[in-house]
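INFO batch 0412 | record 1 of 1 | parsing
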Amino acid sequence: MVKIQKRTNTKRFGPLNISETCSCPGVYVIQDRNHEPQYVGHSKNLGGRLSDHLNQGDIPDARYFRTYRTRSTREAQTLERQLISKLKPRRNVRKP
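INFO prediction complete | emitting tokens
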């Protein structure tokens, strides 16, 4: 079981909120306007990775995000797999 250090409330997907996100390891969930999960990812730098998604525009229907801080990248990878399995986001490629 992964120990989540901190879970954030859902925030608007924009530069101000992303700039306030920690540069720590964890998992992020990007949601559409109906708060449906679109993409789940992990990173060793949550703020940097979310900023990349925003700047690249690779998830055009992104409106909100939520983060889960973990103690390590390894824990983030485990939590990411668990959340993908549970939430079944549209944009994650499912591997058999």
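INFO post-check: The helical segments are 15-19, 46-56, 73-87.
INFO record closed
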